[in-house]
Amino acid sequence: MPFQITVHEPDRILEVVYPPQPTQEDVDDYLTRVRATIEALNGDWSALVDQSQLRVMPSNMVVIMAKLNAFAQLKGMKRSARIVSTAASGLQAWRMTKQAMLNIPARTFESRADALHWLKNPDDE
What we know:
Layout: E1 4-8, E2 13-17, H1 24-41, E3 45-50, H2 59-74, E4 77-83, H3 87-100, E5 106-109, H4 112-120
Parallel strand pairs: 2-3, 3-4, 4-5
Antiparallel strand pairs: 1-2
Helix pairs in contact: 2-3
């Protein structure tokens, strides 16, 4: 199953759903598609990344995703919310954020509804 990419235009939210066990081919395809999507957003936007199905990602893929996060920040990403289901996936999400050296608000959530609320209501902090 490949990565799913959806843009919620009214809220300028880029939503990505990770597959349970991404292959290198899945990651390569995702990088091509998501970079094009990010370029097309052309301005400020927020990221909603659902990693709740993801098991453990190999460390080389963590590095690739960290680089993608750094690129995304340069291209207008202003907030990043991650959905995780286990402590291990939460730790992995934290590692990606740390390696990307993000200078934006980034939080981890256990539900999509809570993550969306946080992205749509930045003044509710």
